[in-house]
Design a protein that fits this description.
Structural class: alpha/beta
Radius of gyration: 24 Å
Number of domains: 2
Distance between the termini: 41 Å
Oligomer: single chain
Strand content: 5-15%
CATH architecture of the largest domain: 3-Layer(aba) Sandwich
Bound molecules: calcium ion
Number of helices: 22
CATH superfamily of the largest domain: Periplasmic binding protein-like II
CATH topology of the largest domain: D-Maltodextrin-Binding Protein, domain 2
Amino acid sequence: MRHLTLASVLLTSMAVTTPAIADGHLMIVDEPLELTIHMHHKRYPSYNEDWPVEQEARRLTNIHLKNATVGSNTDNSGEAINLLLASGKLPDIIGTSRIKDVVNQYGPQGAFMPLNDLIDEHAPHLKAFFEKRPDIKAAISAADGNMYYIPYLPDGKYGRAYFIRYDWLDKLGLELPQSVDEVKAVLEAFRDGDPNGNGLKDEVPYFARQWEELIRLVTLWDGRSSGSDTYHDFYVDSGQIKHPYAGEGYRDGIKNLTEWYAEGLIDPEVFTRGSSAREYLLSEDLGGMTHDWFASTSGYNRLSSEIEGFAFKAFAPPASISGQRIEEHRRIPIKPDGWAIGGTNKHPVETIKYFDFWFSPEGRNIVNFGVEGVHWTMEDGKAIFTDAILGTGRPVNSQLYELGAQLHARGYFQDYGYEIQWSNEFALEGIALYDEGDYLIDQFLGVAFNEDEQAVYDKYWPSVRTYMLERQQAWILGTGEVEADWDAYMADLDKMGLNDVLAAMQSAYNRQYGG
Ligand code: CA
């Protein structure tokens, strides 16, 4: 009884006071213990032992991670993990983007350790987290009921929004578009009205860093482009698993977007311009509208110092043809990214304690903000970035990745406080607008297959998906006609196994979420 009381007092005081990091209470082992790690993500195809966050974690826990990443010469994490699995020798820790399917498939066969008992016995912060969020525990459990990975858990609700040049609307005497027809009229005016005033018809009315954000616009015709924050994902419609690219709203949306593309309302280079599209088209005063992240997109209003009147701000989702206003994208509470313990790890207890460290108040600050006293200081119980981060003028998230913070191939719980500090007034204003309108919709958190379901998925899904994406792009670019092709397309999808995949997903979904 006395022991319990003491423990709860300790936990409470840790949560509310400034952590006294130097007292050694976070030490996991007396002597430094090296654990090998495979860490692969397109932003960092290997684990960097010099990351300040790794160095700080070493100092506090005495656990030293040693890079043992396979496939660092590719930026494709799937390829890398396949190489690793084929090598037959797993390191102590495996962290990668899209680890969920890998561990759910190979964990029950012994390649990864089940974490439930380890967490119950040795990881008080993780245990407390999962007790508070049983939905997350259900979503990351494999078909055998065990958890095999600790995910990256995003914080905050809002992700992307519709953005438009408010100053261009003003110049052309237009209001914010409220409907699909009004969006089209505005994009036509951007194309024809020379809102950048250079006498050239050079404006790019709708652009996107990710071409999937063009497909996103099918929501304006009541279609869907994804059921989660992962592109092309399945979605749940009243308990039924469906795929967006087999729906009639999608068909109608693609038909219209094909016309928009042909009429020059969409960036002609939308499929090839890539991640620099936003930077280039905004700083050159060419881009009119997009669908992108609140914080980073709002940041472009700094261009008002170079481009007279520049105002690129969020606006409410336009009403679809049936009058629905939805924002399809939101932050998902769990990502399929994170890390796991290799099945032959000789130190599972130390490793789960290390995983738990990142969920302690101290570890959570380090993984979110960097090193205390260097990258942030504690003010009124909150980690506040120093000028070392905010004073550089560089994107904060890129700086954090370079420190080894905010790495999505690590299991950690993001703190939205990290982002609000560099969200400018326009982002906060836009978030308030979306909050008021309540435009977000429920997300599909994914399923864990049993072996039979997995076999069906593996057999059919990759080729079905490839076919869907090929047809999608061909239609937009003007090859074939979606309406004329639709029945044959649906028959092809059935022949290729889409309905078998949907049945497998439905069976997994019903088991996992009690549908
Ligand atoms: Ca122009």
